[in-house]
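Example record

One chain of 147 residues, shown exactly as stored in the release files.
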Amino acid sequence: MTKDNIVEILLVEDNKHDAELAILALKEAKLFNNVVWLKDGKEALDFLFGRGQYLERDVNHHPKVILLDLKMPKVDGLEVLQEIRANEKTRKIPVVVLTSSREDKDIIKSYELGVNSFIVKPVDFDQFTKCVKDIGYYWALVNQFSL
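Predicted structure tokens for this chain:
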């Protein structure tokens, strides 16, 4: 496996500002080398399952963690989570919902679908940056992952 095939963090976020802040935090934490940013749920599913523009991607190389927003165009985060957990090849990939939603129904549904963690995005820049760094450190470096 070449370094180019390794995706450690898959960021699925439609909000450009939030994605740029998350990427900045991951760069500061020196966790950015193998990050892929996808802008909607359909693109995330295409990437994970080797469809559409990702037809040539080796789907046997899974990210160490998926940072998943919920409220996205085309396919929302709950639908993405449901498809990930329904597929034998992807169901064990850790998924962290990172969203602005504080709705109980979103939290409950996420856990029913098998999310590993549900985190409400901090509004404060410094807190958001620290939160993303902590998530990256834990899931990309500390957590032991194997499919």
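Notes: Helices lie at 16-28, 41-49, 77-86, 104-112, 125-142.
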